[in-house]
Amino acid sequence: MAQDQGRLLPPVEYWYEDQPRGDAPPRETPSANGNLRHIDANYLELSRTEVLIRGMGILGGCFALGVFAYGLFPGSWSHWTVWDIALSIASVGVVALALFCVRLDIAVPSDTPVRFNRARGKIYIYEHTWKANPFVRWPHSIKVFDWADTHAEITRQAGRSVRYALFLSHCKPGTLEVVDRIQLGGQSIDEAQMRRMWEYCRVYMEHGPANLPPQTPRLDDVNFRRSLFFFMPFLDPSAEGAACRQRMHVIEWLASLALLPMFWLLLPLGLMRYLALRLAPRPQWPAELDAQSRGAPTAAA
Questions:
Q1: Is 171 inside a domain boundary?
Q2: 117: Cβ–Cβ under 8 A, 6 or more apart, which residues?
Q3: Of 138, 150, 157, which is closest to residue 180 (Cα–Cα)?
Q4: Does 8 reside within a domain?
Q5: DSSP secondary structure string, 1-13?
Q6: CA–CA gap between residue 241 and residue 236 (Å, rounded)
Q7: How far apart are CA 131 and CA 138, in angstroms?
Q8: Are residues 127 and 150 in the same domain?
Q9: Is residue 301 domain-resident?
Q10: Are residues 150 and 227 both part of a single domain?
Q11: In Å, how far from its chain's centre is CA 195?
Q12: SS3 assignment, position 127
């Protein structure tokens, strides 16, 4: 990139690229990337189900509980050492970690959608806040951003694999000072996917739904097959899998083939994802904000 960080202050962590605003020419073909929940003249609703990778919490929590249970039943209590006692005390932390992992999977609502209300010029975000303490209440709230003061940024994290995410940053009016940020999309190996998602939102808010390519809303049910192949959708034998394979680019094919040796882990992870989504609550919007985020302002009497 030509610069080390974006224009906004404070900068988003792992910043990669600022996105265009207003009527700037689109850089990519607009697409909701399969996250479209609803679209009409008043509002656009996008899913964020795929932002949180579910299944890992339950799988990791079960493993941690297994380690704890193994430590509770040594071969012989009479041969316990100081080290054994210390490990047993430390295992309490393992239990707390296990509960946190499981709760992260099943307590966060199955989706935390974002509504772009074109009629009001507002963005309504269903946000759920998780806490490090698994024993306290994890609240949810509805955040409201002004479209005119919202900027988009793409982040890039490089580890064993490169992942891109799309963030919306709400600034003080007329400034580049960030008040709040939320993640709109993520877990993508291709930054173009994040650009396409932002272009979809931007074109909708600036020009309306008539200027967007037609896309089918995502299925909102919890499907066993879809969950099982979630981490390896190119192996899905259904029509959805065939459509996924047709959409895949070269980079996605290479990354998918590299994951093949991990199928023994990714398929059980998909099973845990199914269980997590089954147990997770559905998002419940407050009635007043639900109506406000869906509708247009009423004319003054």
A1: yes
A2: 42, 43, 123, 124, 292, 293, 294
A3: 150
A4: no
A5: --SSS-SSBSPPT
A6: 4
A7: 6
A8: yes
A9: no
A10: yes
A11: 16
A12: strand
- Rounded Cα–Cα distance for residues 281 and 137 (Å): 14
Written as tens digits, the pLDDT of the chain (301 aa) is 446 778 999 999 999 999 999 888 888 999 999 899 999 999 999 999 988 888 888 888 787 777 677 666 655 555 666 776 676 677 777 777 778 888 888 989 999 999 999 999 999 999 988 877 777 888 889 999 999 999 999 999 876 678 899 999 999 999 999 999 999 998 888 899 999 999 999 999 999 999 999 999 998 888 999 999 998 999 999 988 898 888 888 878 888 888 889 888 889 899 999 999 999 999 999 999 999 999 888 765 3
Q: Which whole-number Å values give the CA distances from 111 to 32, 161, 247, in the listed order?
A: 16, 25, 24
Domain count, the chain: 2
Question: Of 39, 71, 105, which residue is a domain's last?
Answer: 105
Contacts of 39 (CB under 8 A, 6+ apart): 45, 204, 209, 212, 217
Name the pairing type of β-strands 150-158 and 162-171: antiparallel
Rounded distance, CA 145 to CA 20, Å?
A: 18
User: pTM to 2 decimals?
Assistant: 0.86
**Which residue range(s) make up the domain with 244?**
15-52+108-208+218-294
Q: Let me know how many helices (H) and strands (E) the chain has, helices first.
A: 8, 9
Q: Are residues 166 and 76 in the same domain?
A: no
DSSP label at 296? P
Distance of alpha carbon 181 from alpha carbon 128, whole angstroms: 13
